[in-house]
Write a structure and sequence with these properties.
The complex is a heterodimer.
Chain A lengths: L2 H19 L27 H7 L22 H15 L3 H14 L4 H13 L3 H15 L3 H18 L2 H14 L2
Helix pairs in contact in A: 3-4, 4-5, 5-6, 5-7, 6-7, 7-8
Chain B lengths: L1 H33 L3 E4 L4 E3 L6 H10 L3 E2 L8 E5 L2 E5 L3 E2 L4 E2 L3 E7 L2 E6 L3 E3 L4 E5 L18 H10 L11 H14 L9 H9 L7 H17 L2 H11 L1 E5 L2 E4 L1 H9 L8 H10 L12 H17 L5 H9 L16 H12 L4 H6 L3 E4 L3 H21 L7 E9 L5 E5 L11 H4 L2 E2 L5 H10 L8 E4 L4 E2 L5 E2 L10 E4 H6 L3 H11 L1 H11 L17 E2 L1 H12 L3 E2 L5 E5 L5 E4 L5 E2 L3 H16 L17 E6 L5 E7 L3 E9 L13 H12 L12 E7 L12 E7 L9 H7 L2 H12 L2
Parallel strand pairs in B: 1-14, 3-4
Antiparallel strand pairs in B: 1-11, 2-10, 4-5, 5-8, 6-7, 8-9, 12-13, 14-24, 15-16, 15-29, 17-22, 18-21, 19-20, 23-26, 24-25, 27-28, 28-29, 30-31
Helix pairs in contact in B: 1-6, 3-9, 5-6, 5-7, 9-10, 10-11, 14-22, 16-18, 16-19, 16-21
The chains are: A mainly alpha, B alpha+beta.
Chain lengths: 183, 748
């Protein structure tokens, strides 16, 4: 079953349930863009630039459906996976600056990956850079889209930061936001 | 008695003179020895499967790094290219965070993508050196340490120039005698009598006069030098100091630099033949110039090879093989070693915040930057071509139209390219950083963002694009006009921004407040002082392209202000990490508003003043952008971003005369050239959970899919327009039809 098929089936199921409830509102979330997987272009000889451009997996106007949780928690690009593993090892060894450098390398390859931003937030927290830790967590929250798992983790990190800063009210709010996302 | 007094005076005078010479030679030696200029590197090319990479770009990077193309790359610094496969034997390099070992990798490029990488999940090539930071009185150097130099080099120097180097005290009578004898036998000068130490002194005080007195001075200083410094120190200084060639106005000193200059290779990769050739240059860099006098150079090289055999530094077989090699110099000297002055300028300024000039020019620091040479070159090419074309098209005086461009990564805020003018190789006026010009309509997103943040406006809110006359506190009247000199009446907010209507914008500005708009500009990252006048709403604000880039960076990163960085890390000379400039972000615009303003800027490009670009860019790219034009068409601006890049362009005249270019007609075309070459990813921001979509017509009324004149726009949930357009009403009274349309959409 490919993604398009899943999308269609779920859309049909949703349509039926909405009709049953007599609700006329349309599902509205702009679909979370499917993570950029590098689809290798078929090799050709002298390829004109415009042909190569059109072969990029550029989506046309998307139907306005509820998105499937398109981004899983962890990225699947092998280069990014390897760098995240390196970062994990470096962080475990206490080399936090090096771990941050590895994560930034991963971000250059996949700039919008929420998991990587989240990991960077954790490193910053461990480095004692609390303000930045919260900001990276907000960034991962903003990029997570429908992925409530990452969003919940991000808000839990924010709660941790605020607790460390003595902002108990703020920490409570953040924890509740996290709970609301992933009970 | 007088005889004795004269003698005493002479002794004292000599002593004083010796002290003076001593001080001079030591100052020179230590001034040169200890001044290690900083090396500045571009970003390392990181190879990974799936990246977009063109074959010619990879080739250019390897060539720039001095990699040699061979059939079988079995040594570091070599690569092969057959069909779509590259085999690269990388060099080891100590990065800030780790040492990347030398590796053999296989890379397959298909189309414009790297589809296969054997040899690692990702491979970092060493970064390209793009310049150095030198004390003002110094020239370019590639300093090498004696321990890193191929042993054949000092052996050859001594064998040819100074056989008793380790024995003599600075001058060598044996050497002089030997030289005299050899010269007499040859009937011409084939050997100089100077020791390496004397030659080093001569290099320090290169003077045209070859008088006896000068020779005596040099001899004395050579002896004094030997008193203070060890043989290895002197040898190392010699290797780094000796004059080996000329590149226009630039002198080539030292074997490290000479190796690059003649062979485009680092010194430790040179074959014995090439080492011999360089040693031959010591005696006469212009006389034995291998590019001008290849046969002479080859003869001298072969002679040196013979000497090396006779002194038993080389086996006869190796020497014979070496003699069969062609001289191997590159046809043209390598390009200027600091080819990106505008970017280097930015690097220096960012460094000066944290380092003293002294540290920068004497510690041998290694500075790793964000520059992407491929992006830089394509940006430069685009600017020079487009400026020339527009200048002719607008019948402007040749050379009068100038420009600037900056390209950054949209999420990380790393500066990939800085172009300060059409003459890219010259360190002239850096327009990208220093040309502050009125930004015109480029300021408008700040006004609209302020409005959206106030909670009282949506993208569909009707605005009045009608005549405006305001009397200022000084009694003067401000009466702005639209670019088309027309009145458009009531228009939805998004149309006012897309079409860049001045009247609607000015009215909106007054409505939300000047102070609020200035506040928004600060939040977006504009740091320059701005005079608080209503004309700010229409861009009577002087900013540099760099300032504009910082402002739009915040929008491109979804409301997270990301200070633009040109430097990633700094290490010490030995590779020990010193400082990192980490990625830092700050959420200054809430996600909903950031999303809305980007959607509005996408409307600029799809239906507004930037719609012409749609023809030149791939379908589905959906970039966001804003055109900027100033009074009398003096400045042509454009700022725009895609999924991964942000670029700001400016065109205008230094003498501030009209350039006859609108934003769309000038700077936007340049932006398009750059973006086409970059092959960017589509802009698809993630919608925050409190954002929903609705169809809206050109009057700002709620419409429906399939209705004529309807655009789908984002809104904070619950703020969608309430008034329905006639088409929407019709659609609602036909529920079956509406649902059918909806189904049709789902399965499209």
């Amino acid at each position: 079953m490919n993604a398009a098929c899943i999308r269609r089936l779920s859309a049909a199921a949703m349509a039926v349930s909405i009709l049953l409830y007599g609700c006329a509102t349309e599902p509205v979330t702009r679909p979370t863009p499917v993570k950029e997987k590098a689809a290798p272009a078929p090799s050709r000889g002298a390829e004109s630039q415009s042909t190569a451009r059109e072969e990029q997996p550029v989506p046309q106007a998307q139907p306005r459906t509820m998105s499937m949780a398109a981004s899983t928690a962890a990225p699947s690009d092998p280069a990014v996976v390897a760098l995240l593993a390196t970062a994990r090892k470096q962080a475990a060894a206490g080399e936090l600056a090096a771990a941050a450098a590895s994560l930034e390398r991963a971000l250059r390859i996949e700039p919008k990956n929420p998991w990587t931003w989240y990991q960077l937030g954790i490193v910053r927290f461990r480095q004692g850079r609390l303000a930045q830790a919260e900001q990276f967590a907000r960034k991962s929250d903003a990029l997570a889209g429908a992925n409530s798992d990452i969003r919940a983790r991000s808000w839990r990190l924010i709660a941790l930061v605020r607790e460390s800063q003595g902002d108990h009210a703020g920490a409570r709010m953040a924890r509740e936001t996290a709970k609301g996302l992933a009970p | 008695m007088t005889g004795f007094k004269v003698f005493l005076t002479l002794v004292v005078a000599t002593a004083v003179y010796l002290v003076y010479l001593d001080a001079r030679i030591r100052a020179e030696f230590e001034g040169n020895k200890w001044a290690l200029p900083a090396h500045v590197y571009a970003r390392p090319l990181e190879l990974y499967a799936g990246m977009s990479l063109r074959s010619d770009a990879l080739e250019a990077e390897l060539t720039g790094l001095g990699y040699r193309k061979t059939a079988r790359p079995n040594r570091p610094g070599h690569y092969s290219h057959r069909g779509n496969t590259f085999r690269i034997h990388t060099r080891q390099f100590r990065f800030w965070d780790a040492t990347e070992p030398s590796r053999q990798v296989r890379v397959v490029l298909e189309g414009n993508r790297l589809t296969r990488l054997d040899g690692g999940d990702s491979v970092r090539l060493e970064p390209l050196r793009i310049g150095g930071i030198y004390p003002t009185h110094h020239e370019d150097r590639v300093l090498v340490q004696l321990k890193d130099v191929p042993p054949l080099l000092p052996e050859a120097l001594m064998a040819v120039e100074d056989r008793s180097f380790y024995a003599h005290p600075g001058i060598s009578l044996r050497g002089i005698g030997r030289a005299l004898w050899a010269n007499l036998r040859a009937g011409e000068v084939v050997q100089g009598g100077s020791t390496l130490t004397q030659q080093l002194v001569k290099n320090y005080f290169l003077s045209s006069e070859r008088t006896l007195w000068r020779k005596v001075q040099e001899a004395l200083m050579a002896v004094l030098l030997e008193v203070h410094y060890s043989k290895p120190e002197i040898l190392e200084a010699y290797i780094n100091e000796v004059y080996l060639g000329q590149d226009g106005e630039r002198a080539i000193h030292g074997f490290g630099l000479a190796s690059h200059f003649y062979f485009a290779q680092p010194l430790d990769e040179l074959s014995p033949a090439r080492i011999a050739l360089l040693v031959g240059l010591v005696r006469g860099a212009s006389y034995y110039n291998p590019r001008r006098h290849p046969r002479r150079a080859k003869k001298r090289r072969d002679k040196i090879l013979d000497i090396l055999v006779s002194q038993q530094h080389l086996s006869p077989e190796t020497a014979a093989r070496a003699k069969r090699e062609p001289i191997g110099v590159t046809r043209h000297p390598p390009g200027v070693r600091a080819p990106y002055p505008a970017f280097m300028d930015l690097v220096r300024r960012q460094l000066q915040r944290d380092y003293q000039e002294q540290d920068l020019t004497s510690e041998g620091l290694r500075i790793f930057t964000t520059l992407d040479p491929q992006v830089q070159r394509l940006t430069e090419r685009s600017l020079t071509r487009r400026a020339a074309q527009l200048e002719k098209a607008k019948a402007l005086p040749a050379g009068s139209l100038e420009g600037a461009a900056i390209v950054t990564t949209s999420e990380g805020g790393e500066v990939l390219a800085v172009v300060g003018g059409r003459r890219t190789r010259f360190a002239g006026f850096n327009r990208a950083l220093d040309a502050t010009r009125p930004v015109g309509s480029l300021i408008k997103p700040a006004v609209y963002l302020t409005a959206l943040a106030s909670g009282e406006y949506t993208l569909a809110t009707p605005l009045e694009d009608t005549t405006l006359r305001v009397r200022g506190p000084d009694g003067k009247t401000w009466a702005p006009r639209n670019h088309d000199h027309r009145i458009h009446g009531q228009v939805p907010l998004y149309v006012a921004l897309a079409q860049s209507y001045n009247l609607a914008t000015a009215r909106l500005g007054f409505s939300v407040g000047l102070r609020q708009v200035l506040n928004t500009l600060r939040k977006l990252g504009v740091q320059r002082d701005i005079s608080a006048y209503p004309a700010v709403f229409l861009g009577a604000v002087d900013l540099s392209p760099f300032d504009v880039a910082q402002m739009y960076q915040t929008l491109a990163a979804g409301g997270f202000r990301t200070p633009l960085r040109a430097i990633r890390e700094v290490s010490r000379a030995d590779g020990e990490p010193l400082a990192r400039y980490p990625l830092a972000v700050e959420q200054v615009v809430p996600p909903a508003e950031a999303y809305l303003i980007t959607a509005a800027l996408q409307q600029v490009m799809s239906s507004g003043t930037g719609r012409q670009m749609a023809q030149r860019l791939p379908v589905g790219l959906e970039p966001a952008g804003k055109t900027g034009t100033t009074d009398d068409l003096r400045d042509s601006w454009f700022a725009g971003y895609t999924g991964d890049y942000l670029a700001v362009t400016w065109l205008g005249r230094d003498d501030n005369q009209p350039a006859r270019l609108s934003g769309a007609g000038g700077a936007m075309q340049l932006w398009g050239d750059i973006m086409r070459a970059l092959q960017p990813r589509p802009l698809q921001p993630i919608a925050p959970p409190d954002i929903g979509y609705a169809w809206v017509d050109s009057h700002g009324r709620l419409s429906a899919a399939g209705c004529e004149d309807a655009t789908e726009l984002p809104f904070r949930r619950g703020t969608e327009p309430e008034e329905r357009s006639p088409c929407a009403i019709r659609a609602q009274t036909n529920p079956a039809g509406k649902v059918a349309d909806w189904f049709k959409e789902l399965f499209r």
